[in-house]
Write a structure and sequence with these properties.
Layout (H helix, E strand, L loop, with lengths): L2 H6 L2 H12 L12 H10 L3 E4 L6 E8 L5 E8 L2 H18 L1
Antiparallel strand pairs: 1-2, 2-3
Helix pairs in contact: 2-4, 3-4
Length: about 100
């Protein structure tokens, strides 16, 4: 899925995609709006979040590298920093599977 497709999904749908990717199981309720769930993914994936100057939005940025050293950078702006980070995480996972 690309950024535009992910932007259209609800928080619940994004949470479900991350649950499926990480094989959390049927009984675990992953929530992209819960720091306890998103924090470890943000930390482990080296996703940077920062408020945008003169705006009510946040920026989340993540980087992936191919085996040949090619770099891909993903950036998302959103009012909810955890949602922005969730979309960046999914874009990074998608990129790593495509290369």
């Amino acid at each position: 899925m690309n950024k535009e497709d992910l932007d259209k999904l609800s928080d619940g749908e994004l949470s479900q995609l991350i649950t499926n990717l990480n094989d959390y199981g049927a009984f675990y309720h992953f929530d992209i709006n819960n720091w306890a769930d998103m924090g470890p993914l943000i930390y482990e994936s080296l996703i940077e979040t920062a408020p945008l100057a003169n705006s009510d939005k946040w920026k989340a940025t993540g980087v992936t590298f191919s085996k040949r050293g090619e770099r891909a950078t993903f950036t998302v702006h959103h009012e909810n920093p955890l949602r922005a980070a969730a979309i960046v995480y999914l874009l990074m996972q998608n990129d790593s599977h495509e290369r």
